[in-house]
Design a protein that fits this description.
122 residues, 3 strands, alpha/beta
Length: 122
């Protein structure tokens, strides 16, 4: 049903492997925290993420510039130290939840600016 429609994905932390769906996206923005242990383990345990597998969907998408990795700071995967925590704070006092929402908003702003700047009527 969506064939030919560009698909932009925002992913928040966790397990991104080498799903064949990556062959069909326009772009993937992956937000991750530097203290997200799940995020750190995926490239080790999933062979499709290994550099020695250049033909995997992940590595093809990465080589094509379809993946943007965005570091949201020292945030963990879930719970009190996770992306959606309203009780934990960054060093600057910003709540983890607010940093996550801000990061998503930045991606949406970047996407919408690119969309409107590249429109045929511009």
């Amino acid at each position: 049903m969506l064939k030919g429609v560009p698909l932009w994905i925002i992913s928040l932390g966790g397990m991104l492997t080498a799903d064949p769906g990556l062959d069909h996206i326009a772009h993937l923005y992956h937000l991750y925290g530097t203290k997200d242990l799940v995020q750190k383990l995926v490239p080790i345990f999933y062979a499709g993420r290994w550099p020695i597998k250049p033909l995997s969907p992940w590595n093809r998408a990465k080589a094509a510039g379809k993946i943007t990795m965005i570091d949201v700071g020292p945030i963990g995967h879930n719970g009190a130290k996770g992306y959606l925590s309203a009780t934990s704070h960054l060093e600057n006092g910003q709540r983890f939840l607010d940093r996550t929402v801000e990061s998503i908003a930045q991606v949406l702003t970047h996407y919408s600016n690119g969309l409107y700047n590249n429109s045929p009527s511009s």
